[in-house]
Structures are given as C-alpha cells and as structure tokens.
Amino acid sequence: MSDTVFHKIMRGDLPADILYQDDLVVAFRDISPAAPSHVLIVPRKDLPSVSDVTEDDRMLVGHMVLVARNLATSLEIEGEGYRLVFNCGENGGQVVPQLHLHLLGGRKMSWPPG
Ligand code: 5GP
What we know:
This protein is an alpha+beta fold. It has a single domain (about 5-105), classed as HIT-like (HIT family, subunit A, 2-Layer Sandwich), CATH 3.30.428.10. About 25% of the residues lie in helices and about 20% in strands. A five-stranded antiparallel beta sheet has the order 1-2-3-5-4, with helices on one face. The protein is globular, with a radius of gyration of 14 Å. The termini are far apart. The model has no long low-confidence stretch (mean pLDDT about 95).
C-alpha cells in the first residue's frame, strides 16, 4: 500500500478536518487552502494519479465528482460557482502521488490558471 500523507490521513495517523467519508472516498480540508473553501476528495483505493485510472474506476471517479458537488452544496458555494481540479504529474502541478480532486470555492477564480 502507498504511504502518502493522504494515506496517513485515511488511516487516522495524521489529523485532518474530515468533512465526508464513505467506503470509497475521504474528503477533508486542504491544509494550505487556495480559496476560502478548499476540500480534497481522495479515493481509498491506491491510485497515484489520473494517468493510473482505468475503465474499472469509472464509477469511482464519477463518485468523486458527485461527492464534490454535494460538498459544494453543503458548504453553500454552489450558487456562486466553484472549481474542480485534478492536477496530474509534474507539469500539472501534482505534489501528492495519490489521486485527489480539489474543490475550490468562495472567491472568483481566474482563467487561465498560472
Ligand atoms: P496537488 O498539488 O498534489 O494537486 O495537491 C496536494 C494538496 O495537498 C495541496 O493543496 C496541499 O496543500 C495539500 N496537502 C499537502 N499535505 C497535506 C496534509 O498533510 N494535510 C492536508 N489536509 N492537506 C495537505
């Protein structure tokens, strides 16, 4: 099993502000938020990045998006809009090698990203 900071959080070895969890994913606040609301949705399954996702993971990735949408509703950022981001690999800015979806909201986002 991989041993990233996210695995440590999922095992309970590192503290985190967990907002939601189920059999498939854990969602917690980013330790260094890039927006007033910044949540990471992380699958329990070992998957380093989007590049490792296979057909078998269709349901899991769809579930991650729905969990993010539901969190946007509960955090009351849905009405004003929000951003969902998968960083992938070095050029994508991925730092933690476990798949995760960023939910960002609570401020106006710029485009294109830097
Ligand atoms: P990435 O750049 O890999 O897409 O995003 C990793 C995210 O994980 C970053 O936004 C970073 O702030 C967050 N992060 C890194 N270490 C920790 C940690 O120990 N706890 C929490 N809650 N977030 C973390």
